[in-house]
C-alpha cells in the first residue's frame, strides 16, 4: 500500500465520528436549525458592534449549513422537506446577518454602504432563484463565482477583522459579484434553452 493509499489516524477518526453520527438520532434538520441559531447569534453580535465575535458565530453557523446536506446524503436521513428547509434557512441566515451589517452602516451615516447590503441580499436571492428556476426547466445552472461558499468566505473575512472599514469592501465585492453571477446564469440558461434540438441517430 502506497503512502497516498494508507489511511491516516485523522481519516479513521473522521470516519468513526461520521458513523457514530449516522447511528445517532441526529437529523439533518437539527443541523440546519443549529446553523440558524449560529447565524442569529452572529446577527445579534454584529448589531451590537461586536464584529469579530459575530464573524466567528457566522463562520460556525455557515459550517453547519454545509454539513447538513452532506450528512443527509451520507446518513440516508435526508427528506424532500429537509432539502427545502435547508435552502430556505440559507437565504434567511444570510439576510439577517447582512441586515445587521446594514444597520451598523446606517448608524455611521454611510447610506451607500447600507444600500449595498440590500443589493447583496437581493443578489444572493436572485443567484439562488435563477438556479432553482433553471433546474425546474431542466437546465443545470451552477455557473458564476458568487455561490453560497464564496459569499460566506468574503463576508466572514470582512467580519473577523472587527472593523466596518474592513467589512465595507467585502460588501462591495459581494454586491458586484452577485449581480455578475445573476447575469452569467441568465445568459447561460438562454444559451442552453436556445440550442438547436438534434434528432438522435
Describe this structure in words.
Helix content is 78%, strand content 0%. The chain has helices at 9-23, 28-47, 51-75, 80-107, 111-136, 148-160, 164-193. Helix 2 (28-47) packs antiparallel against helix 3 (51-75) and helix 5 packs parallel to helix 7. Mean pLDDT is 85; it is low at 1-5.
Describe the structure in brief.
The protein is mainly alpha-helical and 201 residues long.
Give the biggest sheet. Answer: none
Strand content: under 5%
The tally of domains stands at 1
CATH topology, what is it called?
Four Helix Bundle (Hemerythrin (Met), subunit A)
Which radius of gyration do the C-alpha atoms yield?
20 Å
Which CATH-level-2 architecture?
Up-down Bundle
| Estimated structural class | mainly alpha
**What is the assigned CATH homologous superfamily?**
CDP-alcohol phosphotransferase transmembrane (TM) domain
Helix content: over 70%
Amino acid at each position: 500500500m502506497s503512502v497516498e493509499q494508507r489511511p491516516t489516524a485523522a481519516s479513521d477518526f473522521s470516519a468513526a465520528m461520521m458513523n457514530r453520527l449516522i447511528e445517532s438520532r441526529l437529523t439533518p434538520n437539527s443541523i440546519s436549525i443549529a446553523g440558524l441559531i449560529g447565524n442569529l447569534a452572529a446577527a445579534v453580535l454584529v448589531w451590537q458592534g461586536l464584529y469579530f465575535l459575530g464573524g466567528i458565530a457566522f463562520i460556525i453557523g455557515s459550517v453547519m449549513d454545509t454539513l447538513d446536506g452532506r450528512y443527509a446524503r451520507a446518513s440516508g436521513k435526508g427528506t424532500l422537506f429537509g432539502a427545502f428547509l435547508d435552502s430556505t434557512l440559507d437565504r434567511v441566515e444570510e439576510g439577517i446577518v447582512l441586515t445587521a451589517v446594514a444597520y451598523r452602516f446606517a448608524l455611521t451615516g454611510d447610506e451607500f454602504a447600507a444600500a449595498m447590503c440590500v443589493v447583496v441580499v437581493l443578489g444572493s436571492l436572485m443567484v439562488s432563484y435563477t438556479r432553482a428556476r433553471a433546474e425546474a426547466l431542466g437546465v443545470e445552472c451552477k455557473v458564476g463565482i458568487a455561490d453560497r461558499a464564496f459569499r460566506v468566505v468574503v463576508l466572514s473575512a470582512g467580519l473577523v477583522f472587527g472593523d466596518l472599514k474592513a467589512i465595507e469592501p467585502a460588501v462591495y465585492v459581494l454586491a458586484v459579484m452577485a449581480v455578475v453571477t445573476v447575469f452569467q446564469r441568465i445568459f447561460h440558461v438562454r444559451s442552453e434553452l436556445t440550442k438547436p434540438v438534434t434528432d438522435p441517430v
